[in-house]
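seq as requested:
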Amino acid sequence: MKLNSNENSSTRSLKRNCKVLVSVGNLLTALGSLGVILGMFGVFDMDVFSLGLSSGIRTIGTVAIAGCLLSAIGYGILDYSNK
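struct tokens:
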């Protein structure tokens, strides 16, 4: 079965957007994890990132968790669209 050009274009656009989502998610995960590790070893003071009632480690960890979620969403959409 051959796809018409409109479906092919939308499929390429979806795959490109998912790859960007996965790349941003992986970058955020790496940055958040690196921030937590460096903060635990005392390279910088994590209290700088404290907001309201949240401690600095929670704020930095939230970046890593958000990255994991973005990557999971991107990979999930790619897997679902390939079926």
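The chain has a mean pLDDT of 88.
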